[in-house]
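Archive record
______________

***
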Amino acid sequence: MLRRGTVRGFRQHIRNQHKKLITLLVFFIIYLMVTATTLLTGNSIKDYISVVSEQQNEDAVKRTGQTRDINEKRGITTELPLYLPHRARIDSKAYSHAKFNEWCYSADKDTFTYDKPFTSEELASRGCKKRLPTVLIIGAKSCDVRTLSHFLSFHPSVALIQNDTFEINYFGLHRDKGYEWYRNQLLYITNRQVVVEKSPEYLTWPHDCAQKVHDYISPKTKIIIALCDPVQRAVSDYYQNAFNPKADPSIHKHYHFASTFEQSVIDNEFHAKSVNFYNKMVDTGVYVKHIVRWMEYFPKEQIYLMDEGILKVDPYKELHKIEMFLGIAEYATTDHFYFDEVKRYHCMRFPYKHCMTKIKSMAMSDIDEDVLDTLYEFYRPYDDQLSKMFDRKFSWMEKYEWL
């Protein structure tokens, strides 16, 4: 006959076993539910867990008010989300929701671009206003600013006019029209977006542009400067503008376009193989000279130098750095881009597959090699200064080792 204590112990053991079985059964049911969900939606279990954990993280950020605090430390006065749902980076419907749910325009569902602004009542209810830019892409001209702007415009938190050829250039060409005109050229946005404007002439012209941006837009404006091989840039500049009947004479008054590129950049009148550094086509590539002028009004921490050579090889790498520089949520992934073997440049795969139309340029192989060497020798000391100033080497600088 069993003792009373032994019976009690046996009963407690049975209860513990029941609890374990119930716990295992609950976990098994959850596993079946998750598996069924993933089979129906076509997503992996890893994706499901990622979405759940990210949702928890997003809720925590909203709960604690970290978004506003962190953005204020970064010098950003808007309420930019620090987080984007993982699905918005891989699923077109989730992306469309993240991009346009708080947008001020109707959206084109095929190209994921904005169409027309909402009615004035709807704009007011959404808190949409036309605000001055918080970010400026100021050049350099012919350094693939179009590609950078196009890629960046798809970020859900970025409001950037999605016209690859449109440039406002207010301080250069339209200052006499007033700030109301300038503001009207910009997009309606909410306080959860950043306004990005591209005007590649600003790096070099007008000369008081940095001061005007500081005084009339904001001293906290962030500056992005796209840099590229200065010799290749000059060649592209010549090819695109030398015989362009639509060229604005006020912009090109400091250019000298001869019948050939070589005659345009080399001045043999006073000294053989003398570089015509007064020609803006040459002067624009003296990057350090122009950047120093901007650094008089904006600290180095507010200036990002994008390397076109890296953008061409690995767009994600540059865009990820720019996201960090702007203090916006991480969005770009390597899967968003692919290299087109026919066109020989990177195109976009997400949110929809498409390639930009590239502007043609003259091949470097068509230029006299002695002239190219002379130009590289001319730019070398300036690029050395630039490298020391920002403590980095740029992709084209390896060519100096061959001279």
